[in-house]
Amino acid sequence: MTGITGHNIFCGLGFGSDEVYSRIRAGESDLGLHDSGFALPEPFYASLVQRDEIERRFAGLPDTCQMTAFEKAMVLSAADAVAMSGIDPSAEDTLFVLSSTKGNVELLESGMERPDGRMSIWSSARRLASFFGNPNEPVCVSNACTSGICAQIAAFRAISSGKFRNAVVVGADFLSRFVVSGFQSLKALSSERCRPFALHRKGLNLSEAVASIVLSSDTAGIGISLEGGAIRNDATHISAPSRTASGQIAAINAVLEGKPGFDLAFVNLHGTATLYNDSMESVALHTCGLDTLPAVSYKSIFGHTLGAAGVVETIVSALSMLEGVVFPTPGYGENGVPYELSLSDRFRKISGTGFLKVMSGFGGVNAATLYKLIR
Amino acid sequence: MKLLSEYSFVPSPENVDELYRSLGMSYPKFFKMDLMSKASLLAAERVLLSAGLRSDETKPDMAVVLVNSTSSAIDDIEFQKTISKESFFPSPSLFVYTLPNVACAEIAIRNRIMGETSFYLRSSYSEDFLFKAAGWAFSDPSCRKVLCGWTECLTDTPLCRMMLLERDI
User: Fold this and answer.
1) What is each CA distance from B106 to B39, B100, B112, in whole angstroms?
2) Arithmetic mean of pLDDT over chain B
3) Which residues 20-59 of chain A have a CB within 8 Å of chain B?
4) pLDDT at A55 > cutoff 90
5) Which of A142, A185, A187 minimises the CB distance to B91?
6) Are B83 and A178 within 8 A, CB to CB?
7) Where in chain A is the domain with CATH 3.40.47.10?
8) Which chain B residues are within 8 Å of A160, Cβ to Cβ?
9) Quick check: A144 and B99 CB within 8 A?
């Protein structure tokens, strides 16, 4: 058994999973309009991590390698999750796994012609691991928007191989002129708070977050175990999902295979609120016979936090599973996908002993992970 | 795991064009790709041909695992130039290639590979890590073959090395 033994979310709503969870449980969201953010000509809707909050929390901690704010936020998040888990982060059998799509990309704004070591995601991961005195080369996963659960799958496999007892999975992405203008150029952003699966959805909201999960062998931890994961490509298009949802169907079927009678309580969808993603997910759930299962997307609460999304959303799903509820999907009104899913604007009580998490991303990649409630 | 075939070359704009011609390929999408996708796709083409596998056969049991050091930095730098305050014309077709796993997708699309695709970042070339990452892909019970490679176009020692590995029976 591979259990979640520690976790942390650091986002615009606050620091620590408990604080963030209680705020979103009360219906709060930090999504808002950012006019002239990153000196961009077009405004965008987002939630940002306050940089002075990072510095305030980091003050007094040893910074021997002049970390960027992005790296300091990762250290703070990982330290909180590690403290909760009680593991030794410096042990040989502890592995650090980083999920990030763009890391320190904002350093490019200085006009460099060749990337230096600071910009590389592996070097951010090394600074993170070395802060904790960990001797192992960290694993860095870069699988677009699915990275946060792909990193958990890598950690699960590393633990299953027997070499590691614990893995600290950190998902982190900050926004920048680079990231926001790129998504704007793709016409993927909504000018208002996003509305996953809704008829009048206009696109996604980008956001920032750093989140950490500690996975440990032979324990149920907080009462949620990771049962496994699967990754599948739909081999259709580099920046659009397959209309037949072939990749996501294959990922869901693979993760549920060999688990007959697994009593799913809900499914946590990717639900970015783009036209194509949400339609594809409804086709996938319908084909897998899961369209009546209670479903939720957190994108209209947190926005799309890119490499952090899979970690943030797993933590919220795990805590809601422990509480026995599934979250509402704010902004969902009239159904706007080919097969109507079981989404709601209010909290629902759940029965069942586990949840499914699915994500998809650029590069035709689809991933699914399965979690079980252990009492 | 068993090594079925492998191919290495030094990726550069000239070398990928020459390799494309020498393979006699007719694949118009190739000319829209970034250098890393071109190099990875061509190395995959060579390795799959050597193993007698056709690009138009669906491969539900094959994975693509790529690793490099600088991620998509070549394209990142180019994209950054399109968003300066003086000249702001961000290019969506360039932005898409600022995700390194798009190289996995180009190989998957060309060769109808429907299994896992994963991209990892590592400080420098490590054969041990390539085999470890391939082993992780094989831990998925449906995976029979892994196209696994190092694809780095930017450091002082650019190298594209692709291997086709098969699960031990």
Assistant:
1) 11, 11, 10
2) 97
3) 39, 41
4) yes
5) A185
6) yes
7) 2-217, 224-373
8) 139
9) yes
Q: Is the per-residue pLDDT at B106 higher than 90? A: yes
Q: Which CATH superfamily is domain A224-373 in?
A: Thiolase/Chalcone synthase (3.40.47.10)
Look-up of token digits 């449980």: A25
pLDDT value for B2:
97
Decide if pLDDT at B169 tops 80.
no
Is the residue at B94 inside a domain?
Answer: no
Q: Which one, of B46, B37, B73, B55, lies nearest residue B151 by Cα?
A: B37
Q: Using the beta-carbon criterion (under 8 Å), do A362 and B99 form an inter-chain contact?
A: yes
pLDDT score for A332 = 96
Of B20, B100, B19, B64, residue with least CA distance to A115: B100
For range B93-100, the mean pLDDT: 97
* Percent over 70 (pLDDT), chain A: 100
Nearest to B116 among A103, A114, A232 (CB): A232
Which runs of consecutive H residues, i.e. helices, occur in chain B?
Answer: 13-22, 35-50, 73-81, 92-96, 102-111, 127-138
User: Contact A163/A93 with Cβ under 8 angstroms?
Assistant: yes
Q: Could you please state the CATH topology (level 3) that the domain comprising A2-217 is classified under.
A: Peroxisomal Thiolase; Chain A, domain 1 (3.40.47)
Chain A CB within 8 Å of residue B152 CB = no
Output the six-digit token pair for A31.
Answer: 């999504």
Residue B88 domain flag = no
B6 and B161 Cβ atoms separated by less than 8 Å? yes
- Chain A within 8 Å of B113 (Cβ-Cβ)? yes
Half-sphere exposure of A2 (CA within 13 A, CB side): 26
Copy the structure tokens of residue A30. Answer: 């930090």
| B115 falls within a domain | yes
CATH of the domain at B10: 3.40.47.10
Kindly determine whether residue B154 and residue A102, on different chains, have CB atoms separated by under 8 Å: no
Q: A160 CB near a chain B CB, below 8 Å?
A: yes
In a domain, B92, yes or no: no
CA-based nearest residue to A335, from A188, A200, A191: A200
For residue A142, the distance in angstroms to the closest alpha carbon of chain B comes to 5
The upper half-sphere exposure of residue B27, i.e. CA atoms within 13 Å in the direction of its Cβ, equals 21
Strand-pairing partners, residue A372, are: A225, A354
From chain B, pick out residues whose CB is under 8 angstroms from the CB of A361: 101
Count how many domains chain B has.
Answer: 1
A137·B123 Cβ contact <8 A: yes
Element (H, E) at A311: helix A309-323
Average pLDDT over residues B108-112: 98
Rounded Cα–Cα distance for residues A53 and A287 (Å): 45
- Domain range for B158 is 2-71+100-166
- Give the model confidence (pLDDT) of B126-158 as tens digits: 999 999 999 999 999 999 999 999 999 998 899
Give the confidence band of A113 by pLDDT, cuts at 50, 70, 90.
Answer: confident
Element (H, E) at A218: none
